[in-house]
Design brief:
UDP-N-acetylmuramoyl-L-alanine:D-glutamate ligase, nine-stranded mixed sheet, 13 strands
């Protein structure tokens, strides 16, 4: 495996567009059951907010030493302000569209003894005006970057994803997509899509052998006019499909503690290494290593260039 190209990565500029969310953690101790209902009582001792979704991809890109701009939609609320603050602290160039009629997507997790006891989600789809602003801003920003990363969490920010891919193709900027759902026609013309095992099954059906997976993956890749298709397969590793065929790498993780946000780290590492000049498969090897490191951490975390090296 070639050395991590830290110097080349430092010159890379990535635009991340997609669904932004705030991950809020309440950590506490559980020492009794509620007299009102058979549920644990958590005495909250510490609170922590972290960037989630597309914002976590951007945070990982910066942690790896590259430059990241973040484009997405937040509400004009406390959580939206927190996203802006955290992005600034992380060194991310924020290009956020504010929709005052929308709550910022917020995932609140209650933790007891390092275990997740409850998650509460606040989310609504963005309005037409906010989406039009996002598209206009994307078209201005794309040409100033080496790579466009689309982080789709099906929260609505990428409702017009076809227009963003079209604009990137016109500007000659490669597009990496972390897809959602099974309607992959939306991503036609991207450079690569990175479905996980379950998402791939939703898109092409269950496969019963590696040969069958390869046949279906290559058919999908050609249909969508992709350079590459990467299936991330948890403990089974990652499999890349290009016009040159199939290439596989086994999982890197030594100990799995928390898988939340692992896909964001994989996407970030893939983007910066590919944009630095690596081949798709060499970039996949580094993405696999980064994903293996981040699942050993609690919650949405990042991997740094130093940890990778």
């Amino acid at each position: 495996m070639m050395p991590f190209p830290a110097e080349a990565v430092s010159r890379v500029k990535v635009l991340v567009a997609g669904d932004i969310m705030l991950d809020r953690y309440w950590f506490g101790e559980v020492d009794r059951i509620s007299p009102e209902a058979p549920v644990p009582v958590v005495r909250v001792a510490r609170r922590e907010d972290r960037l989630g979704g597309a914002a976590n991809v951007a945070r990982n890109i910066v942690a790896l030493g590259a430059q990241a701009s973040l484009l997405g939609i937040v509400g004009g609320d406390e959580a939206g302000g927190k996203v802006r603050d955290l992005a600034r602290e992380a060194g991310i160039n924020s290009c956020l569209v504010v929709d005052n009629d929308l709550p910022t997507t917020l995932k609140m997790r209650v933790m007891g003894r390092q275990q997740q006891l409850l998650r509460v989600d606040f989310e609504e789809g963005p309005g037409v005006q906010a989406l039009a602003k996002l598209e206009a801003q994307a078209k201005q920003l794309i040409a100033q970057h080496d790579m466009l990363v689309l982080s789709d969490y099906a929260k609505g920010a990428l409702s017009q994803v076809e227009a963003l891919i079209g604009a990137a193709r016109e500007a000659g900027v490669p597009v990496l997509v972390d897809p959602k759902g099974h309607l992959y026609q939306r991503y036609r013309g991207a450079s690569i899509i990175t479905p996980n095992r379950l998402e791939m099954q939703e898109a092409v059906g269950r496969w019963h052998s590696e040969e069958e997976l390869e046949q279906r993956a290559q058919a999908l890749r050609q249909e969508l006019e992709l350079d590459a298709l990467l299936v991330t397969r948890s403990e089974q590793g990652m499999t890349l499909f290009t016009q040159d065929g199939r290439q596989h790498t086994d999982a890197y993780a030594h100990e799995v503690f928390d898988v939340s946000g692992a896909g964001d780290t994989v996407l970030a590492a893939l983007a910066v290494t590919k944009a630095s000049g690596m081949s798709w498969f060499d970039a996949v090897l580094w993405a696999n290593r980064a994903g293996g490191l981040v699942v050993g951490k609690l919650g949405t975390s990042v991997v740094t260039a130093g940890e990778l090296s």
